[in-house]
Amino acid sequence: MVELKYDRSAQGAIQQIKDRKYTTVLENYAGEILLVGINYDRKKRDKSHSCIIEKVKK
User: Model confidence over 1-32: pLDDT tens digits?
Assistant: First the structure.
């Protein structure tokens, strides 16, 4: 699951996935699930970003 944010935080993107329970659509999925939170900073000219990847524990 991937959540993108602008001018916020990658951790906030991960938290949104958890709070809104986006992973419930994958309840019957037997493989590994990764949560990816990406934040882009619009104010920086170099288009820098931050990214957090978290493994879901079942």
Answer: 999 999 999 999 999 999 999 999 998 999 99
Q: Model's pTM, two decimal places? A: 0.85
Helix (H, G, I), strand (E, B) or coil at 58: coil
Residue 25 has φ and ψ, to the nearest 5°, of -70, -10
**DSSP H stretches of helix in the chain:** 10-19
| Cα(40)–Cα(48) distance, integer angstroms | 6
At residue 11, φ and ψ (nearest 5 deg) are: -65, -35
CB 27 within 8 A of CB 1: no
> What distance in Å separates the CA atoms of residue 9 and residue 43, rounded to the nearest whole number?
14
Residues with Cβ within 8 Å of residue 45, at least 6 apart in sequence:
none
